[in-house]
Fold these 4 entries.
Entry 1:
Amino acid sequence: MTTLRQLRFLVALSDTLNFSRAAERCHVTQPTLSAGLKELEDQLGVPLAERSKRSVMLTPVGAEVVRRARVVLNDVADIEALAHAQAGTLQGDLRLGAIPTVGPFLVPRALGLLRKAWPDQRLFLREELTDSLLAGLAEGRLDLVVLALPHAVGSIETELLFEDGYQLATSIGHALAGSAEVTGAKLAESSILLLEKGHCLQRHALEAYAEMGAPPGDAFSATSLPTLISMVEEGLGITLLPQLAVDAGIARGHSIILTPLPGACPRRVVLGWRATSPHARRFREIAGIFRQARASLRATM
């Protein structure tokens, strides 16, 4: 009979592709993990992994078993969480994921408030792109995610934290610096610098004004907001910075001009969790704390 322990062994092997690291993750010895996986293969009657002295690779059926095992383990975790919720407790670590254009600016502000509200709760933060966060939530690797809409999020529950507008970042002396009449058409005529593909902010920035349109295929893209700011400072183009990042001081110390864009369509920053989670009430309380943290940033501008 297939056991949850065997499925956890297989998922750990899939994540690490290394028997030693998989055993460490499962808090067992390597022989114990290897024996458990061999038993699982014998019970199912198919090989789940190809082993050599230098590498481990899942077989096609092994990959499919892992996909289904994640669903099973996630459901079991929710059952256990339901029992804890009925007992009035949220046990274990709270695993939060956040997109890179929100997490570094919002979460540190919220940590003190979270610790004050639940001193025994440990919070672990991961910064990942939106699609990776959603996958982590579906697989049970994450409990909560902070991301920005619009974006297809499936059936997860979300609660709005705040709307995040933009400011235009230009070099000193740029024609649009300090302009009160910035439009999408004027932005489209400029060299716009954006985050690389995969960051939802790239699409959100382009959708801030309906008439902006897509940048040319050879447009510069960056992996982070600080890199974009440095490029703007060198006069290589302009960019749109989220108001959250601006309020957190991301442009402090840089020789650039920030121009408010009240006419830009804001992105919506939300907190999301699995619809099956029994901790919706606690998560909504956490959403309230994130809103407090965002408000405190405005107050200290």
Entry 2:
Amino acid sequence: MNWDDIRIFLAVARSGQILGAARALNLNHATVARRLTALETALGSTLFIRRTNGSDLSPSGERFLVHAEAMESAMLAASESAGADSRIDGVVRVGAPDGFGVAFLAPRLGELTERHKGLRIELVPVPRAFSLSRREADIAVTLERPREGRLVARKLTDYRLGLYASQPYLDRNGTPASLADLAAHRLVGYVEDLLYTASLDYTAEFLKGWHSSLAVSSAMGQTEAVRAGAGIGILHAFMAGRDTGLVPVLPAHTLTRSYWTVMHEDLRTISRVALVADFLAEIVTRDRAIF
């Protein structure tokens, strides 16, 4: 059995497409399809149900995926232990919520790549969940501690959310004196059916029956809309609190959520991954006051 064929199998399983896997591996489509067929022939089993719009794992493919990921983990560990020196290099992909990823991580990660010239960090700051078993990210920053799977979690920090508006909006519409007064204002919120975790569903904690006149599917987008005067929104204090274009509204009313770093158990001994995870904890601890 050829390791390169297994690597191709994993890429197709994770992308759901032969073409997507070919792009990720920098191979042509025909080569990926041929190597995949060779692996299926060697195993005497069909691993994928190939469709015009993608490739789904067959029951045999689902079973083989467990072994293929174990082999991948063994290869990573072997490569790590065979290193001739302690130099850190390679790629680490970090998935994070957009607000934390853009406003907090992006300005600080250059410090780590400056320390380790051979390290490449790929930051993916988008409002979505990341599958660590499919290696969509090496480290994910999440809003909840995972309850299942072979995952290792570490709490980074609690953070606060509160109500904010722009001063021009308040000048035009007045400042609410109570949470109940919010019902008379234009409100900025999230697109409910696009929430990827229950932790983001928090409008009712400020106002039951909250109705957003403008709904934006990202924390950064909500912040920009509120700054532009679209209404009152629930924003992250570590972003909005230092923004001179935003004014706290009813500052006695806040709520608390948490950030966690999560990685697959197989990656915890990989030096570059552990280094990045430790750095995330380091910079959050250093700047904890802003949260």
Entry 3:
Amino acid sequence: MAEKIVLASASPFRSKMLADAGIAFEAVRPETDERAVEDAIAGSGLTPGDLALVLAEAKALDVSQRYPGTLVIGCDQTLSLDEEVLHKPKDMEEARRRLLSLSGKTHQLNSAVVLMRDGEVLWRDVGVANLTMRPLEPAFIGRHLSRVGEKALSSVGAYQIEGEGIQLFETIDGDHFTIVGLPLMPLLGELRRRGAIDG
């Protein structure tokens, strides 16, 4: 019998992925201070993928403590450029600088997902996608950002691959769901294996 599933995320993109896959779930915003978690492990030598896992687990733990006995999905995504982890831009000027820094280069999106019940991690996975931006002229970046507006501030790369952001790229090597922020195929497989969804 399917069990209650809670998604520890306020991301509309992650919710849409699960809903489109026919998963019954409740989305709950975690009250996790991501920067505080990062500060606590600064200098520990974690890879960007490991950091995404730590953040995903922190979010899942926060929600798991509020929903005892429930299967909680925690997820997080980091963007890494030459092993440097970048965060969501704070304003449009930072978004402009972000796109300039990614222009003509390959960066990684590291999407982590964990399953947790009562504070115990049951399963974890990290999907990695490599995205190569085409060389972008500063004037084009300005026009692009003026078209997409503040949506650019809702993602670490200052782009939405599922929208006009696709025009920024030369090549993409990776799973679409991982790029959007949730390694969906491994997650669905694990949910089926556990009998949490019909399989």
Entry 4:
Amino acid sequence: MLEALRVSVLFVLTAVAEIVGCYLPWLVLVQGRTPWLLLPAALALAFFAWLLTLHPQAAGRTYAAYGGVYVVVALLWLWRVDGVAPTRWDILGGTICLLGMALIAFQPRTVAA
């Protein structure tokens, strides 16, 4: 149970780092904000890449499961940062993504003999 909590928190931190790393350049390119935002963006993306290495699963399984968490964190970002309330379809889609993530990340493991 603690491992599932650790992995879940790690997925959320990974998603936040990736979103910050992509959102800051968006502010520069779309909203004309200072190019200095590209420095913390690069650091956030480096942190994102490092966080991915901390996941206990094989890389492909980590990326597949991470995608579900990313979708939900992006919807929370939409709501809290962009100020756009998620629709019921967003919530349903996010729920489906989290169910998929749980199936992939927390599937029963067989012990090799």
